[in-house]
């Protein structure tokens, strides 16, 4: 039996964060290299790792999540290997190099504790969606892990002059330097998304990437309000 299961054994550590399979994140923890992770995402760990749910820094920032789109976070510290997952969702690991990323809170799995982060309003959308859209902005040099309901597509918006349109409920993350605007449309449930009636897409332009998942978030984040 051990021989049959050998292919699923832990692999040697090669980076701070890396995938173990499609739907699991492996984090190499070390003293002084704290981590913020989605509360409840720990599935296993080796070594000595402590967890602090809803630490003061998170409580202060999370108070800005007035739309309920935030992600409950815990602080992880210690030495060992930490394994995280989110109900079988695909895990995408990103190594920021003095860069930034805007992430839908429901798709945020983990990020290095030394990175700068905060809740940010997406400009240019309030008139379409009432209170607008709030995301988690992360910047600096370090590791970030996000989730996707299925294998995502990463669209490079800088390859042409055309705008890239995304259903907001399928949006995972994007480069915050992109220009964003809303576009109204009427869509039938048999063509795009769920439901019927007036809705809209988000239009991205400029230099940067947009990460889109093949399954719409069930929260209906953006809808035109009369």
From TrEMBL:
The signal peptide, as residue positions, is none
Extract the Pfam families matched here.
AIM24
> Mind telling me which Gene3D superfamilies this protein's record contains?
Mitochondrial biogenesis AIM24
Which parts form a coiled-coil structure per UniProt?
none
Q: Which domain of life is it from?
A: Bacteria
What is this protein identified as? AIM24 family protein
Which organism does this sequence originate in? Streptomyces mutomycini
């Amino acid at each position: 039996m051990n021989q049959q299961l050998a292919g699923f054994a832990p692999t040697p550590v090669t980076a701070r964060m890396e995938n173990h399979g499609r739907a699991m994140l492996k984090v190499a923890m070390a003293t002084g290299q704290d981590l913020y992770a989605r509360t409840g995402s720990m599935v296993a760990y080796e070594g000595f790792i402590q967890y602090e749910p809803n630490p003061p820094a998170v409580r202060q920032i999370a108070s800005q999540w007035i739309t309920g789109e935030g992600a409950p976070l815990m602080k992880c510290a210690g030495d060992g290997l930490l394994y995280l997952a989110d109900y079988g969702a695909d895990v995408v690991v990103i190594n920021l190099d003095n860069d930034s990323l805007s992430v839908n809170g429901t798709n945020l799995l983990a990020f290095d504790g030394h990175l700068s982060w905060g809740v940010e309003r997406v400009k240019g959308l309030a008139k379409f969606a009432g209170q607008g859209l709030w995301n988690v902005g992360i910047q600096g040099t370090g590791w970030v892990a996000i989730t996707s309901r299925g294998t995502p597509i990463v669209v490079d918006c800088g390859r042409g002059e055309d705008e890239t349109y995304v259903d907001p409920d399928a949006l995972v993350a994007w480069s915050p330097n992109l220009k964003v605007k809303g576009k109204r449309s009427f869509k039938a449930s048999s063509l795009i998304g769920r439901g019927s009636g007036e809705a809209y897409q988000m239009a991205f332009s400029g230099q940067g990437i947009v990460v889109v998942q093949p399954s719409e978030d069930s929260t209906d984040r953006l809808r035109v309000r009369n």
